[in-house]
Design a protein that fits this description.
heterodimer; A: alpha+beta; Aldehyde Oxidoreductase, domain 3; Aldehyde Oxidoreductase, domain 4; seven-stranded mixed β-sheet; five-stranded mixed β-sheet; 19 helices; 28% helix; B: 166 residues; Ubiquitin-like (UB roll); DNA polymerase, domain 1; 2 domains
Chain lengths: 806, 166
């Protein structure tokens, strides 16, 4: 071998495979304004749809007259529930087994509910006509408080199912009850509490929030009457699910529906569901024979399509006096709004909430969740989290702090004592989850060392003394959070949506010259899939990532998949990609053996080629083998080099992390300034560290928004008071803290490349960390729990209630 | 509705059109001129996805009528690349520093940063954060956007870019 021959390491580096901070492929078009988002689409003859919405939170419709609206120049059609009934689409099934009005049928159940759909030649004409649809309402009593939903005299939200005693998830115990769901062992948990030395109980509210991607939900529906085919472009995180649901409810054969999700301007869960606007645009296109575009404005987005959280949790922990947890109980009321449109796997009406035992070795645990109907918007999506994991992580992390406070222990020390130990993995939790891998103590220790935790506590102690002496009006809070996520839904034995198992897919085709295309069932909304999937292939097949095109979002070309949410792309489609590569590699190995005239077993893999064992000069690169696959395959072998894999994961993956945050609070203004935030994440094998860090930054910023200011708030009359950017807090660059990140890397033992998924971790861990910091600031004054969001007014109020303003 | 005649320079090209007086500038740019780089995120001037450069100022084109831009000189993201077709230092910086994810805020963010650097060619981190506070990003957490702008400032000033220590 002469000196010019590249070393194995040099050849590997050129591939830009696993572990490479590869620059993103998609950025080339985005930085030039050449992305292709739904609203960029303008088809010949395209019409614009706009929705008439209810000003009331709960009211009967006594009159609905579209005559004046239909007479507006440029208006082509006006759809109402009565029109939709003629095609049996006034109601649609939800992902959660409930039904939902597409347009108000007899009454409205939440403010801004869709009442009529105007279709016109221009968006301005449509908006004019919306103003002229005449609707008369007879207001009904409103309930927006989930804790009052099951009162004996509560307003009946759902008249259509008032007398139904069985729901999609079993017995209903009240006309506003959606489901009861429980997990764990109640008797064992009760026994632990009877024997406990120390107990805490707290009522913890995770308020209703909204994912709020910068691009709202939108679609263009185009029905071809001649062929009977529907093409639907839309902001869909799960395009195949939209196609299947669309076929089931419209009766258009599935092969005649073409769903295309182009570039998506952020999703965070908002774009999983099927919304009224989509159905109306489809029907309008069928009725008019022309393409119809529907785009939400921001108020419509915040107040109607999706919400997250709204979990009201009564949590208890039992503990020995020396600080070892022995039991956990949690009773939750979940506010589902007017229709149960939660995006959850079918068997899990409360999602994966039973991850609530968190990162700790609880011998006994039990949880019960009751879902209820109220006069609020439907949705119940995961806002950058995997199916209610954020609610669970927030609840347990707050509760652990409250217990530490009662024991007089440091919150980090208390956690360290109770974390699942490295040698316990794979670890089966009291709720039955099998945690795949982890080294929790090392992660927490590393975070504590990086932040000089002991010194921070010393500083806090001195500041508290100074505060008591009246020398400062500032309080210092230190937040500690250790979270474990459960992502990668999911194993078919546990997870399906409307009966479709939650596998995902990858189809890889290698072209004769050694480049290729990979198509997947997932759909990027900013995660950089075009960049990262190619890196998996680069390492698996020894072809440069730059030679691989990654394509998603077209249901005609992509293999079937359940889409991107719940941090499932890497755990499921990432695995499918690796497995499809391995099929290709096995075939390439046979071709290489034939060409080199050796037995398959005499070959070994070397970065980008197969070489003969003991004779490395004799080798065939993957590029050569790609050519051979179309040129000189062994006798009897099918030509070509491609493979498809549908990956049904054997288990979920369990990413985790240790976060530490420092806040300084001015008790007189209620301002909480984040001085420092340190996030250590373990997402298993790291595919692209640059993208991982970007995901962490973004998720932490969302967590900061949620913890410090976000809430979708309703007044008692059912008015949503936070439906614009004037009232719904999105952090700007000014208030967003500086993020410090670090990692450990314990691979998942059951994933082909050991990756666990990362996108949602910072939201799951970030929210409790901020909240713990604010709560910690006041804990020495006897305060146990202050509800989120910790905006200035609420923090000021907490200080006021503690008598700090006298 | 009676239409009004407008004429303006967009990315160096003169355009003339008849528009309804109520047509918003963002709709005119996106739907008439088919410049779909600037985006619509809120229609209330908060998010900045629609930011364009108008007569030497950053303007949110969702809350301005096309007729108000009569006679104006406008630059959008589509006119940001260098005359030779290579990427502007800001466009390069956003990619190099991973200053974007979904790409929806990016055109407005780059256009805003362009004006910021015209006004202050060597801004501090604090000045950058304040300078882009009218542009929301839901994906990146801003930290890498700040770096991207610092990268561009260094490049435009002909000095080596040094990433601040974490």
């Amino acid at each position: 071998m002469n000196d010019m021959t590249p070393t194995a390491a040099e050849r590997a580096a050129k591939l830009e495979g696993l572990g490479c901070k590869r620059k993103r492929v998609e950025d080339i078009r985005f930085v030039q304004g050449k992305g292709n988002y739904v609203d960029d689409l303008k088809l010949p003859g395209m019409l614009y749809g706009d929705l008439v919405r209810s000003p009331h939170g709960h009211a009967r419709i006594t009159r609905l007259d579209t005559t004046k609206a239909a007479a507006v120049p440029g208006v082509v059609a006006v759809l109402t529930a009565d029109v939709l009934k003629t095609v049996n689409l006034a109601w649609m099934p939800t992902l959660a087994g409930d039904v939902q009005m597409v347009l108000a049928d007899g009454k409205v159940l939440f403010q801004n509910q869709e009442v009529a759909f105007v279709v016109a030649e221009s968006r301005e004409a449509a908006a004019d006509a919306v103003e002229l649809v005449e609707v008369e309402y007879e207001p009904l009593p409103v309930n927006v408080d989930p804790l009052k939903a099951m009162a004996p005299n509560a307003p009946v939200i759902r008249e259509d199912i008032k007398d139904k005693t069985d729901g999609a998830h079993g017995k209903r115990k009240h006309y506003n009850h959606v489901f009861s769901w429980q997990a764990g062992d109640k008797a064992a948990a009760d026994a632990a509490f009877e024997k406990a030395d120390v107990k805490i109980r707290e009522f913890i509210v995770y308020p209703r929030v909204h994912p709020c991607p910068l691009e709202t939900c939108q679609c263009v529906a185009s029905f071809d009457k001649i062929e009977g085919e529907l093409t639907l472009w839309g902001t869909f995180q799960a395009p195949h699910v939209i196609r299947t649901v669309g076929s089931l409810i419209s009766k258009i054969p599935e092969h005649k529906i073409h769903v295309i999700a182009p570039d998506i301007g952020g999703g965070f869960g908002n774009k999983v569901g099927a919304y009224s606007g989509y159905i109306c645009a489809i029907v309008a296109s069928i009725v008019t024979g022309r393409p119809v575009k529907w785009t939400e404005d921001r108020i419509e987005n915040l107040s109607t399509t999706a919400f997250a959280r709204d979990f009201h949790m009564d949590v208890e922990i039992a503990c020995t006096k020396d600080g070892k947890v022995t039991g956990l109980r949690c009773y939750t009321i979940a506010d589902h709004g007017a229709f149960d449109a939660c995006a959850n796997a079918t068997k899990w009406p409360a999602g994966l909430f039973s991850i609530i035992s968190g990162s700790y070795d609880f011998p006994a645990a039990y949880c019960l969740v009751d879902g209820v109907y109220t006069n609020k918007a439907p949705g119940g999506v995961a806002y950058r989290c995997s199916f209610r994991v954020t609610e669970a992580a927030y609840c347990i992390e707050r509760a652990m702090d409250i217990m530490a406070q009662k024991l007089g222990m440091d919150p980090a020390e208390f956690r360290m004592k109770n974390l699942i130990r490295r040698e316990q993995f794979p670890y089966t939790s009291a709720f039955g989850w099998q945690y795949d891998s982890g080294d929790y103590q090392t992660a927490l220790k590393k975070a504590m060392e990086a932040t000089n935790y002991t010194k921070l506590r010393d500083e806090q102690k001195a500041k508290r003394e100074a505060f008591k002496r009246g020398e400062t009006r500032e309080l210092m809070g230190i937040g500690v959070a250790f979270f474990t996520e459960i992502v990668g839904a999911g194993p078919s034995r546990a997870c399906d949506i409307l009966g479709i198992a939650m596998f995902d897919s990858a189809e890889i085709r290698i072209h004769p010259t050694g480049s290729g295309i990979c198509r997947l069932g997932t759909k990027s909304q900013g995660q950089g899939h075009e960049t990262t999937y190619a890196q998996i292939i680069a390492t698996e097949l020894g072809l440069p990532a730059d030679n691989i095109t990654v394509e998603e979002g077209n249901t005609d070309t992509a293999p079937y998949g359940l889409g991107t949410y719940g941090s499932r792309s890497t755990p499921v489609s990432g695995a499918a990609t690796a497995m499809a590569c391995r099929k290709i590699k096995a075939k390439a190995q046979m071709i290489a053996a034939y060409m080199l005239e050796v037995h398959d077993d005499d070959l070994e893999w070397d970065v980008d080629r197969f070489r003969v064992k003991g004779n490395p000069e004799r080798s065939k690169t993957m590029t050569e083998l790609a050519w051979a696959a179309y040129h000189e395959v062994p006798p009897g072998m099918e030509p070509g080099l491609e493979a498809i894999n549908y990956y049904d994961p054997p288990n979920f993956t369990f990413p985790y992390g240790a976060y530490i945050c420092v806040v300084d609070i001015d008790v007189d203004t209620g301002m909480a300034k984040v001085r420092r935030f340190f996030a250590l994440d373990d997402c298993g094998t790291r595919i692209n560290p640059m993208i991982i860090e970007g995901q962490i930054h973004g998720g932490l910023t969302e967590a900061f928004g949620i913890a410090m200011g976000q809430e979708i708030h309703y007044d008692p009359d059912g008015n949503v008071t936070t439906a614009s950017f004037m009232d719904y807090f999105l952090p700007t660059a000014v208030e967003t803290p500086h993020w410090e990140t670090d990692w450990t890397e314990v691979p998942s033992p059951h994933h082909p490349i050991g990756a666990k998924g990362v996108g949602e971790s910072p939201n799951v861990g970030g929210v409790p960390c901020f909240s713990n910091a604010v709560n910690d600031a006041f804990s020495f004054l006897g305060s146990t729990h202050i509800q989120m969001p910790h905006d200035h007014w609420r923090v000021w109020t907490a200080a006021e209630n503690l008598g700090l303003h006298q | 509705m009676a239409k009004s005649q407008v004429a303006m320079t967009v990315n160096g090209t003169t355009v003339e059109a008849l528009v309804e007086p109520r047509t918003l500038l963002i709709h005119f740019l996106r739907e008439e001129l088919r410049l779909t780089g600037p985006h619509i995120g809120c229609e209330t001037s908060h998010c900045g996805a629609c930011t364009v450069d108008l007569n030497g100022k950053s303007v949110k084109s969702c809350t301005m009528f096309a007729v108000q831009a009569n006679g104006a000189d406008i630059r959008t993201i589509e006119g940001m690349a260098n005359p030779d077709g290579t990427l502007h230092a800001l466009q390069e910086g956003f990619r190099e520093m991973h200053g974007l994810q979904c790409g929806f805020c990016t055109p407005g963010m780059v256009t805003r940063a362009y004006r910021l650097l015209q006004e202050n060619n060597n801004p501090s981190e604090e000045e950058i954060r304040f300078g882009i506070a009218g542009n929301l990003c839901r994906c990146t957490g801003y930290q890498n956007i700040v770096k991207a702008i610092q990268y561009a400032a260094a490049k435009l000033n002909g000095v080596p870019f040094q990433e601040a220590a974490e």
